[in-house]
Amino acid sequence: MAVKTGKDYIERLKKNKPKCYILGKLEENPFEHPFFKPAIAATAMAHDAAHLPEYEELLTAKSHLTGEKIHRFTNIYQNSNEIIQKIKLNRALSHICPPCNVKCIGNDSMNAIYPTVYEIDQGAGTDYFKRFCKVVERVQKEDLVCSAGITDVKGDRSLRPSQQPDPDLYLRVVKRTSDGIDVRGAKAHQTGAMVSDLTFIAPTTTLTKEDKDYAVMFVVPPYAPGITHIYGRCLGDERRLEEGGTMDLGIQDYGVHRTTLMVFDDVFIPKEHVFMDGEWEYSRPLVTYFSTIHKLSSACCKAGIFDVIIGAAATIAEYKGLEKSYHINDKIATMMYLAESIYAEAIGAAVDSFKTPAGTPMPSIMLSNVCKLTLTKHPYEMCRMMTDIAGGLFRTQPSEKDWQNPEERPMIEKYLQMKKGVPVENIMRINRLIEYFMFGTASIEDLGHLSSGAIETSQLWIKAVGNIPYKKKLAQKLAGIKEEQVTEPKKLKVAKG
Ligand SMILES: Cc1cc2nc3c(=O)[nH]c(=O)nc-3n(C[C@H](O)[C@H](O)[C@H](O)COP(=O)(O)OP(=O)(O)OC[C@H]3O[C@@H](n4cnc5c(N)ncnc54)[C@H](O)[C@@H]3O)c2cc1C
Fold first, then answer.
1. Measured between alpha carbons, how far is residue 354 from residues 245, 286, 338, 489, 491 in Å?
2. Residue with the nearest Cα to atom 36 of ligand 1?
3. Of 353, 371, 354, nearest to 458 (Cα)?
4. Beta carbon of 295 within 6 Å of any ligand 1 atom
5. Pocket test for ligand 1, best of 189, 231, 298, 443 (most atoms within 8 A of CB)
6. CA nearest to 251, candidates 260, 239, 269
7. Short-list 402, 404, 338, 336, CA closest to 371
């Protein structure tokens, strides 16, 4: 069956031997490390949920290649409704497994590469589309977990890839043979690459003729010879290394957004896994498609996390005996508005999608970037409301070890009590969850703001597609300025080059 279970995934994963340094040490068994175990559990959950009746419809789709039932995170969208389903799925999965299930970003990259390789073939006479479809078919059939290596390390941001004093600061082709290519460079902030079966690699920015060697797109197992991962440590990590108890983790089973710096030291990529090699003009559609799709995924999983934070706010308010307070309920309503507005903009972007030349739907570029900008603002307001409702205890409460110590426990029980009948342990647990979302390994401020790109890229897109000249003319006409003519808005084309 094409929809695998978490057990299938873990058994498959454990056969891989990626090279990974964690806290300055080359790890023999990184998958057994407490930093990676929660990420594996989260990814396994994204498989198991597909077998639960309440999630099955959201989590499965029909392959347009084989007609088989597949995991939705391996699907190539065929209509805008499938984008809507993916948005709903992202939100729903965050309810059970914040912050990341890994499979989602790989799906975003597949849906960006698919129309791009189609366009390359049309313009350059290559045969990438056939190669790529073969890989997609395998991903669907085996229900593989794919990560996406888009972000280069970028060195001096004012210089183009080919202008960097060190040529390896953007991933590039260093050797070509009839069998394939060798690549060198690094991809930064790689979510889940360590725990995936495959990583799709693509350019992070639009390229020029001089950047030809940087115009490279391929798929690679993250454990291929020549690849090294360096684990990116996060605040709160060390709590996972402590013996005994899990309360201080906030979220015990999952709750980890694991990234690595993924270094490629002359890694061989066989020809059948290469989907771009030198066609620099097509970096533009690739970047456009990926950022447009990924912004929605990123937004909606945060909307799901917001839902959990709202639940935490309502819980702690109730524990404090404040559930009827006007200003608390007002703040909780504001928090709901923040979550729903992100979701609404994402749904709007999907509904207003357009067709790529390959025939696949692509969300509205304008609305996807509007949604992303909202996402960069709302987490801060969310934290403001949450902190106000929670008060100081989530930053100052004793540890679980203190709670477990019989000498301290009576004092903690007496002095941390809130509304009559609420167990102090529950108060401590909800506070840890709140702390986790505010400052933990996956604080919503970082995730909301950074994942899927910087603010400026969205501003640029909004300016580019917003047709300001047309809007100026509308105003001039209404103001009675007669000499200027109002023209219709231009249809947006994702031009190459
Ligand atoms: C938790 C997390 C998970 C992530 N997961 C992934 C992943 O799985 N795969 C992946 O590929 N990426 C991933 N990312 C990367 C993410 O998309 C980037 O962090 C984001 O695109 C910003 O890039 P950067 O970090 O290099 O910051 P920078 O590019 O350095 O941006 C910082 C600032 O510099 C500005 N800037 C940069 N270049 C220029 C310029 N030329 N001119 C003017 N201003 C400029 C930006 O606008 C911004 O204001 C992840 C990031 C995080 C935080």
1. 51, 15, 27, 15, 10
2. 157
3. 371
4. no
5. 189
6. 239
7. 338
Q: Is the minimum distance from the CB of 451 to ligand 1 under 6 angstroms? A: yes
Closest CA to 26 of 221, 186, 185, 228: 228
Joined together, the tokens standing for residue 110 give 């597949």
- How many whole angstroms separate alpha carbon 39 and alpha carbon 230? 16
Instruction: Please state the separation of Cα 268 from the chain's center in Å.
Output: 27
Q: Of all atoms in ligand 1, which is nearest to the CA of residue 153?
A: 26
State the DSSP code for 244: S
Distances (CA, A) of 175 to 166, 183, 265, 269: 17, 7, 12, 10
What does pLDDT average to in each consecutive run of 10 residues of the chain (497 residues)? 94 96 96 92 95 94 97 97 96 89 94 98 98 98 98 98 98 98 97 96 97 98 98 87 87 81 98 98 98 94 94 98 97 97 98 98 98 92 94 96 97 98 98 89 66 86 94 94 68 57
Q: What are phi and psi of 280, to 5 degrees?
A: -60, -30
CA atoms of 88 and 77, how far apart (whole Å)? 14
Q: Rounded to an integer, what distance in angstroms lies between the CA atom of residue 19 and that of residue 227?
A: 7
What whole-number distance in Å separates Cα of residue 179 and Cα of residue 385? Answer: 57
